[in-house]
Amino acid sequence: MSVLKVENIHKSFDKTQVLKGIDFSLQKGEVLAIIGASGSGKTTLLRCLNFLETPQKGKIIVNDKVLFDADDKKLQSDEQIRKNRLHFGLVFQSFNLFPQYNVLKNIMLAEELLAKEQIKAVGEYNGCTDFKEAQEKIEQKAKDLLNKVGLSEKMDFYPYQLSGGQQQRVAIARALALNPHVLCFDEPTSALDPELTGEVLKVIKGLKSSDSTMVIVTHEIEFARDVADKVIFMADGVIVEEGTPQQVIENPQNERTQAFLSRFNQKF
Question: What is the pTM of this model?
Answer without folding.
Answer: 0.92
